[in-house]
Design goal:
The protein is an all-alpha fold. The chain has 15 helices and no strands. Helix 7 crosses helix 15 and helix 9 packs across helix 11.
């Protein structure tokens, strides 16, 4: 399995988990704590039995089902990032000329295309896999023992050697949000990297929050655009 198929498999597993529990989200008026409680109970069997569950889970009982469901909410990642970016752009164009000239200076990154006709992924999937797995281990839980536990889970799932190698390579890379951001060459790519990273981050965990803040700093996306991306989850 190449990186593109593996990445789509991870998104698909998250979407299956979300779809399986979508009825629980209908007509709900929940506060943050009740939403977290519901998410933690989402379809553990599916997540724990898949590749996504092996990556996000933990021998220490680390909660992963809610994160897997968040990944599912951006299963159409290219479309989600595209929609948020286009909506943000339209709001900037509607602003006054002074506001527009101030807000449109986005990290000095060129747009990938002048006009995007289709919401396809702008990033290569190697970058997106690194972003997802890097964010997943941002809480520091993947020590040598946990690393081996994840590899053992993946072996038990019977996934092919190529997928195993891709995941292990991403797991062994040091956390480097600056290096990750340096591989981004357009605003559209920055949106995708941020969105997939945010989907597996627990902002209430101080280490994960710090990682996300570093990524935000180096991607240098405007705060208003970041809010649009967060709304896609």
């Amino acid at each position: 399995m190449n990186s593109s198929k593996l990445f789509q498999q991870l998104l698909s597993e998250g979407k299956q988990l979300l779809d399986k529990n979508s009825d629980k989200l209908k007509n709900q008026d929940m506060n943050l704590q009740s939403a977290k409680k519901m998410a933690s109970g989402f379809g553990g069997g599916l997540a724990s039995g898949g590749i996504l569950g092996a990556i996000l889970g933990s021998k220490k009982g680390r909660s992963y089902a809610g994160k897997a469901a968040k990944v599912g909410s951006v299963a159409a990642l290219g479309g989600a990032a595209y929609y948020a970016y286009q909506k943000w752009q339209s709001e900037q164009k509607a602003a006054t000329p002074t506001q527009s000239s101030t807000n449109m200076n986005v990290a000095s990154l060129p747009s990938a295309t002048d006009v995007i006709t289709e919401p396809e992924l702008q990033c290569n999937t190697d970058l997106l896999l690194d972003a997802m797995i890097g964010a997943a281990k941002a809480d520091g839980h993947v020590d040598a023992q946990e690393h081996q536990a994840i590899i053992s889970k993946l072996s038990a799932l019977g996934i092919d050697q190529g997928s195993n190698q891709l995941i292990e390579a991403a797991l062994t890379k040091p956390l480097d949000p600056a290096g990750l951001a340096a591989r981004v060459t357009s605003v559209e790519q920055a949106c995708e990297v941020y969105l997939i990273s945010y989907s597996v981050i627990d902002v209430d965990h101080f280490m994960e929050k710090a990682y996300l803040q570093e990524l935000e700093k180096h991607l240098n996306l405007p705060a208003t655009l970041i809010e649009k991306l967060k709304q896609q989850i």
